[in-house]
Amino acid sequence: MDKRILFICGSVNQTRQMHQVAMQLPEVDAAFTPYYADGIVDWGRRAGLVEFSIVGNKMKDLSLSYLHCYDLPVDFQGARGGYDLVVTCSDLIIPKNIRQTPIVLVQEGMTDPENFIYHIVRRLRILPRWLASTSATGLSNQFDSFCVASEGYRELFIRKGVSPENIVVTGIPNFDNCAKYLKNDFPLRDYVLVCTSDMRETYKWENRKAFIKRAVAIAAGRQLVFKLHPNENADRAEAEIARFAPGALVFQSGNAEEMIANCSVLITRYSTTVYVGLALGKECYSDFDIDHLKQLVPWQNGNAASRIADVCREMLQRPSPSPSYGTARRRPSAHRIDPPARQGASAAGR
Question: Domains of the chain (ranges plus CATH)?
Answer without folding.
Answer: 4-176+298-317 (3.40.50.2000), 178-296 (3.40.50.2000)
